[in-house]
Amino acid sequence: MTKKALVVTSIANEQHPILQKFAEECVLRNIPFYLMGDTKSPENFNLKGCNYYSIQAQEESGFALAEKLPVKHYSRKNIGYLLAIQQGAETIIESDDDNIPLSNFWEQRERFQTGDKIANQGWINIFNYFSTEHIWPRGYPIELVQQQQELQIISLQEAVDCPIHMALVQKNPDVDAIYRMTQKLPIYFEEDKKLIAGKGSWSPFNSQNTVWFKDAYPLMYLPSYCSFRMTDIWRSFIAQRIAWENNWNICFHSPSVIHDRNEAILINDFKQEVSGYFNNSMIADELDKLSLKSGVGQIGDNLLKCYELFIKLNLIEEQELELVQAWISDLKHLSR
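Above: the chain's sequence. Below: its structure in token form.
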């Protein structure tokens, strides 16, 4: 059995029912559960089955990145990834404190997959494969949402390499603020389906319900100096672009959590997403133009090139580069 770890970030207390559920299930399965706190987290958090790290504990972890990450930011989750890697995790599951895990959340994911695949189709609305509703994922170019799209599916006879898996969320899916303010919810996706997205097919994926295999760990890095609503989305674009250099695919699955969304002010979400509405299509075009190298050993350099591009495009502040370098340095230290 592959050694797993679960990573979540939260400012809730130990009475939070979903955190309790995660902890109980992790104890049953002997899965380490790493919870990253922030400045608003309770001082004396204590939950059986949960390895909780306050800001102070994160800063005392010995990671170069821990000293540089800004507080009050979702990117504190990066320290959880490093801790899981340090403890020998071969796959890392990540989620959030508003996702209720279903039984299939804990099922073993296989890195090599067969089934339906799509490739070389440009932007794809992955939700179209799992639902007939008019719905699109957060990060999908807003100018494309009214276009009719027929997914060109091929059926694989041999397994392909998928070191990144994302499962959808049921009931309250990860859609953008424009969808939430104009369309209907809840939405229920079809069950027991999966779609493999290969080279040349862009689809955003998030950090709500994602599984990463060891070779892809460097691609987990969440940027700090960008919009909160774009940090995991822009990460996904960079991860896809680098994955293609290694003939890797992204595997999307039917839901394995029910999303019980934390309270949010939609107009504030909209403001946080504006940089994506205006730039997501352009980002893919610019990433396509980059000259990257294949091989797991080249991922660090490729990551730097991608973030240098984002800085050049004025999408992310220049301070980000120092964090990316610290992330790469910490990973190299852990691999010794």
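The first strand starts at residue 4 and ends at 9.
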